[in-house]
Fold this sequence. Notes:
The protein is an alpha/beta fold. It has helices at residues 3-11, 37-53, 88-98, 102-115, 136-149, 162-174, 186-200, 219-230, 255-261, 304-322, 340-347, 359-366, 387-395, 401-416, 424-438, 442-446, 482-491, 518-532, and strands at residues 29-32, 58-63, 72-78, 125-130, 153-159, 210-213, 236-239, 277-281, 288-293, 299-302, 330-334, 352-354, 371-375, 381-385, 454-459, 468-470, 475-478, 497-502, 509-514. The strands form 5 sheets. The chain has a 5-stranded mixed beta sheet with strand order 1-3-2-4-5, sandwiched between helices. Strands 7-6-8-9-10 form a 5-stranded mixed beta sheet, with helices on both faces. It has a 4-stranded mixed beta sheet with strand order 12-11-13-14, with helices on both faces.
Amino acid sequence: WVKTSAVGSRADKHPVPANVRFQYGTAGFRTIASVLDSVLFRVGVLAALRSKKLDGKTIGVMVTASHNPEQDNGVKLVDPRGEMLDTSWEAHATTLSNASTTDDFVSELAKFVEKLQIDLAKPARVVYARDTRPSGPALVASLEDGLRALGAEARNAGVTTTPVLHYLVRAINTLGTKDSYGEDSEEGYFQKLSSAYLKLVAPRQTPPPLLIDCANGVGAPIATRLATYLGDRLSLVLENTAIDTPGALNNACGADFVKTSQKLPPSLAGRLQPGQRGCSLDGDADRLMYFYIDQRNQFHMLDGDKIAALVAAFIVDLVKTSGLESQMKVGVVQTAYANGASTKYLTERLPVKCVPTGVKHLHHAAESYNIGVYFEANGHGTVLFSPAAQETLQTYEPSTPAQATALEHLRNLNQLINQTVGDALSDMLLVEVVLAHKAYDGSDWDSLYVDLPNRLVKVVVADRNQFKTEDAERQLVSPPGLQSKITDLARRFEGGRSFVRPSGTEDVVRVYAEAGSKPQADELAFRVAGLVY
Ligand code: 16G
Ligand code: ZN
């Protein structure tokens, strides 16, 4: 294998650190940035091979650690349709990243190429981007070295959000086809989203200004540019935009802070006016949390479940009004973390499925509907229109003006929503569209249902791999006997529900509990944690 020599000499420059074990998990590789150099090099090689395997289709690589602290970084691969890397390749990524010497790496690589029958003569095309982390440029240089080792055609998309990178991948691979996703540039992305928004929200429906907490991350420059496309039809007030201030990223701000602490980021105190809507992005702008403070200065959070409820009900109405009800099945996908009150609200209106945590599970399940709405409680989600649904939207002949209007709205939503992956900015526009149509403010939206009090705690255990679940993570099958104790305990609390699952991103076990009151939810969570420990 001629090429391996080029790989080998380059790989020597990216040695694997001692005593670190890497794993391509639900969010790709993610850890402290200082140990990631070799991983980035090898991901470059792997991305090129994935492209060759798929006959030269463009593969994406995103360098980000999302909502993690600034000193972390990470990397994930994006498949040609803009979706997450095929699961079967996750294990290959893990194996290659852990080969401890260059020789091991090269021989693993040769085995891999042989086993998957990758034709090395095929072209390789890769587009990559990074978030604003200070460790980004050096890691991107290592990635580029890996791409060069295989002679890949590489395109640098610069500093941008994870969803923009996913958009670019799909746009590049569909360019000039009948499935064209849009122009393959950031401009193309802004054009597509903003023109759909401007069609959906009439000037007389213009919402009041929206405050955006950019988490001091890459959402800031991208939202700044989006704002210029929206003009006075949606004024965005950007906060936490200090992307060059060391230590500021995700620090006491951003979507993950809001969801976990259920508090307004302290930096927004006095900025968000009572009654005004605000939202937080995370460090790579693929998660979104809304909130408002009421006249008594009380903070109210509108999480991914509330977004799902708002959006799904709106789409169901449009489908009915357009006369497409019998042809278009709308459904929702949630995880066990969805608040029980949201599940109840949604189940009364449309089919709801529960799947294990992680975008790939939700995305996959949503594909089984004509229009599939999925959101994790943490604010990551999107809406998928199946190919059949898109076809129907194109060809359907409405028979009344009301049907025609609803149909037009559905067509525009199909453009507005980034369907490759959850996209905080696209989701934000979607929420604004629904609020404008319903003439809702934050509190109207909030009152769709009342969240059940809940508590999430993490427990450090000797070995989290002992914890195995089934039924979409709602039941533990191992350690033996533990589930029945949890079930018995939860039954003693009014409205009690609790489940335990191993984290996919941290070395802990997570305990979730819901009950009729906050103290009860806390008590249930801590008592279940006591059983786990
Ligand atoms: C990852 C997942 C996210 C999930 C979270 C759960 C992707 C792209 N991201 O960040 O969807 O909510 O893990 O983390 O799938 P946990 O397993 O530590 O609870
Ligand atoms: Zn993120």
